[in-house]
Amino acid sequence: MPLVETYQAVRRKALDRVPVPLWRRLVRRDVISLYYHMISDRELPHVSSIGSYKDEVQFEADLAYLSENGHLLSYDELRRHRLYGRRVPGGAIHITFDDGFRECGENACPALRRQAASATFFIPTDFIDNRDLIWVHKIAVCVDRVRRAAPETIAAVIATINGRFGAGLDRRAALVAWLNGLRQIHGSEIERACEALGVDPADYLRTYRPYLTQCQIERMAADGFTIGAHTTSHCLLEELSHPEDIEREIVESCRIIADITGRKQVPFAFPFHGFGVDRALLADIRRRHDVIGLIFDTGQLRRDREFVVHRVPADRTRHCRPGESNMPFLLRRAYADEQRLL
Ligand SMILES: [Zn+2]
Description:
Elements: H1 3-16, H2 20-26, E1 31-36, H3 45-48, H4 56-69, E2 71-72, H5 75-84, E3 92-98, H6 102-114, E4 120-123, H7 135-148, H8 151-165, H9 172-180, H10 187-197, H11 201-208, H12 214-222, E5 226-229, H13 243-261, E6 266-269, H14 279-288, E7 292-297, E8 308-313, H15 327-338
Helix pairs in contact: 4-6, 7-9, 7-10, 8-10
Zinc ion is lined by residues 98-99, 230, 234, 271.
């Protein structure tokens, strides 16, 4: 191993030994917020090829660790703290979920209830009741198909894609990379890839029912969980060219969630991230629209405006062991990253 890589590996190992309580004293944060997407024991094509996710036992282990080593905060407690300076207990943690998967209601909520814990669930509103498959999930299903397909099928799909888009693909790995490089604006490429691979989104929706129904969302809200908005179409807001489009995505999705839950104000989370979205613009949009609560981003432990809460990703399963949460590992990595030590 080259010297630089050896040094990096040794440093990483040393950082992984710093206990979380010590990190907490070194990098002061009033509240840490986490974000999950999926909790399931099943392999699900629309998520599996995007990244790992925890099963129910692993999630229970996270909750046990978090409630023993911190204080699980509700959204309302977090909001009062951020906007009105209310004090929160030491080790305050707020749990969130993105994307509105049905497993949020079926697997995450029962586990949270057993721990008497609260959480916030962010829903992209166009997909409630399984009206459509989110574009990233269409791509994920295609990638899953490509990984399983016979060589002849791959050759035929590559010929179709090259013929239509001049993509210059030559093998399975190149096709996967091309699929993973598609964005929401590449609607016709995604559609053609689905056709070529025999992915029928309507059929997939009927078979898997990937997302929450309005009825499930209402029940979760009635059970005391907080429901937030996650845009209407699950778009990357920094890619929208006009501030009015950003405003529409935020306001419209918040209004839809407010109508469903009967809440006057609901939180909002950026799909992917909101790094390129101007905070002064967000402040102005919030000032003009009472329906928008706190705004959640994905910058781990980053500090931001008082109404922006950054979150640490919690889906990764690395270092998960039977009956043991990998949360200490994930938090140590977030602290080290915040100190630019990784
Ligand atoms: Zn999302």
